[in-house]
Amino acid sequence: MSVALVGNAPATFEIKSAHLPLVALMLKSSDLGRLAEEFAQRFGDMPDFFDHDPLVIDLHPLNVAEAHALPDFAALQTLLRQYRLTPIAVRGGTIEQTALAAAAGLLSAPDATVQRTPPSVAPTATANPEPVAPASPPPMPGALVIDKPLRSGQQVYARGRDLVVMAMVNPGAEVIADGHIHVYAPLRGKAIAGARGNADARIFALSMAPELISIAGIYRTSEVALPDSVQGKTAQVRLVPGPDGDKLVIDALGT
């Protein structure tokens, strides 16, 4: 026999579980001077790239590169806030690092998860394989479409979605997207896809001749000339993981 009991609920509040979308900084060095230089190179001309995003500092890479390093967390927070990031927590640190972070006002978030590109694994045979539905990522909003040429000094950022450009991206212009970038015209400026770490993002162009291409932070500049097989040709750029680190691969299309 089931019995239903009447409960009392507070009239002024409710407590619910919540999931906060965080940006993760994979800290690889305690050299904050070099970190400041590289942040300026990456984001110095994009002052609105971040929008006061909450951030967790992941110390795993630091402890691989510099065992037991003790970063200046107060100075690190000052640097990050200059780029409209809001550090709130650390993860993956030693006891000493976590204590220093706490003294600087950062929480310990050992359970925070960081998205990483899984390695490719060859399928193995099983006696009675059961079908498994592939996990579907949440759908991204519709692509941002730009139908006018982008001149030198202009910048377009497709936050949280793909970017489609129907006209030329001239030298000195910059196109940025958290997803893919499609340029149905010559690409002669800078193209930054997967700007927030999406390693599956790609760059497509009808005429590939960029000043800079970047996917998930891995970049190549025009100082290293593209091979003749792709320079000025219809091509795509993708990121391929390897034993020596991720690398950009450029493929000619339609040949």
From TrEMBL:
The keyword Cell division applies. Pfam families: MinC_C, MinC_N. Residues 114-137 are annotated as: Disordered. Keywords: Cell cycle, Cell division, Septation. The keyword Cell cycle applies. Residues 145-239 form the Septum formation inhibitor MinC C-terminal domain. Residues 114-126 have a biased composition (Polar residues). Gene3D superfamilies: 2.160.20.70, 3.30.70.260. InterPro entries: CAP/MinC_C, MinC, MinC_C_sf, MinC_N, Septum_form_inhib_MinC_C. Residues 13-87 form the Septum formation inhibitor MinC N-terminal domain. Belongs to the MinC family. PANTHER family: SEPTUM SITE-DETERMINING PROTEIN MINC (PTHR34108:SF1). Cell division inhibitor that blocks the formation of polar Z ring septums. Rapidly oscillates between the poles of the cell to destabilize FtsZ filaments that have formed before they mature into polar Z rings. Prevents FtsZ polymerization. Interacts with MinD and FtsZ. This is Probable septum site-determining protein MinC. It comes from Hydrogenophaga laconesensis. The lineage of its organism: Bacteria, Pseudomonadati, Pseudomonadota, Betaproteobacteria, Burkholderiales.
